[in-house]
Specification:
about 375 residues, mainly beta, 1 helix, about 0% helix, twelve-stranded parallel beta sheet, single chain
């Protein structure tokens, strides 16, 4: 779709009508004036109001053909597009504008209905709620090629509404959050890189959803629990890599119909296991997953079938921060080409067409 391009700087400029960089909106003016079908292009760092959540005045009026657009740029609009990563597995490249909100509680930024956000780093120091919140009743949205940095105790991303999708984003828990991503209702998390630089006893992705959801191609580094699922009726957990976790996947009671395929996890040999399953977790499939360095046996496995499991004996990754596969026997070499259809197991592919250094089937598969 064709957007009407608008411009945003920290304090605004000129006539403040958003029609050009010389006449840019301030952040507050954008929240008040942006309408669906417009894309607000943000240059430079923005300090949002620390008094309240940033909420678009017209938040409920977006549509599939006229969403709210928001993206960062450096010199020319669109110059940060692409979402490339250093070494294919590292942090997103590019000097993204930083939009920060020091609100003490509540969400930093509330996603409008039908939104398309890219190339911005969002930060908050809030102690509750999320940096980006998909509010109940405001559905559909796509956040991609962004960075989310938690500096307090809140979450990075929380979706309480249907079809809020996040793809190819960097999410860092630099604060004390216990859960970096909290997903309710129908949502998809794809090709994101989660780090826990603050060292909190945290879960990377927490999904509680009574509707179909997916976690695909993510890198989850230094979280005690990589993925936690509860009260889910259908979920696909596919092609993820986790390193330095105590438990890769915790599935609580009332979870059913989980497909867990082509995942790679290297534990920290602490108190935890590959899986911790609730006693009523049912109707799930494990296939072509690889694990190693977990301290205890799986809990409550029950009658879950598991096919083609690979037990690795060494760290399969290049380093603590580089989750490309190494060539060490019993480690990275043991999972290359061992996934379904001959792909590598885990998030980062090295074989066949992926040798050039991209995720398979990347990237914006959940777009508007």
């Amino acid at each position: 779709m064709a957007y009407t391009e608008k411009y945003v700087t920290d304090t605004g400029a000129g006539t403040h009508d958003g029609t050009s960089e010389a006449n840019a909106w301030s952040w507050a003016e954008m929240l008040t004036n942006q309408v669906p079908g417009e894309r607000a292009n943000v240059k430079g760092n923005i300090t949002a109001s620390a008094l309240s959540t940033s909420i678009w005045s017209n938040a409920s009026s977006g549509t599939r053909t006229s969403p709210f657009g928001l993206r960062g740029y450096v010199s020319t609009i669109g110059d940060l597009a692409g979402g490339s990563r250093s070494n294919n597995s590292g942090a997103l490249s590019g000097a993204f504008p930083v939009v920060s909100n020091a609100v003490a509680s509540g969400a930093g930024f509330q996603l409008p209905e039908f939104c398309d956000f890219s190339n911005i780093e969002f930060k908050t120091t809030n102690t509750t709620s999320a940096i980006l919140l998909g509010q109940t009743g405001q559905n559909y949205g796509f956040v991609y090629d962004c960075k989310l940095t938690v500096e307090g105790g809140g979450y990075a991303f929380s979706a309480n509404s249907r079809n809020k999708n996040i793809s190819n984003c960097d999410i860092d828990n630099a604060g004390s959050s216990t859960k970096s991503m909290v997903i309710a209702s129908r949502a998809n998390v794809a090709y994101c890189r989660l780090t826990n630089s603050g060292g909190a006893a945290a879960t990377g992705i927490n999904l509680f959803s009574q509707q179909p959801s997916s976690i695909v191609g993510c890198q989850i580094i230094d979280y005690p629990t990589a993925i936690e699922i509860e009260n889910v009726t259908s979920v696909d957990i596919v092609d993820n890599s986790a390193r330095n976790c105590s438990t890769f996947l915790e599935m609580k009671d009332s979870t059913a119909s989980a497909t867990v395929v082509n995942n790679l996890a290297w534990g920290n040999n602490a108190a935890g296991s590959e899986f911790f399953l609730g006693t009523t977790t049912v109707a799930s499939l494990l296939q072509n997953n690889a694990y190693g360095n977990f301290a205890t046996a799986n809990s409550n496995r029950g009658d879950w079938p598991e096919f083609n499991k690979i037990t690795i004996t060494g760290d399969p990754f290049n380093s603590a921060s580089d989750l490309r596969l190494n060539d060490t026997a019993g480690a990275g070499a043991a999972v290359k080409g061992q996934g379904i259809n001959g792909n590598d197991i885990g998030a980062i592919q090295a074989t066949a067409a992926a040798a050039a250094g991209v995720y398979p089937a990347q990237i914006q598969t959940f777009g508007l």
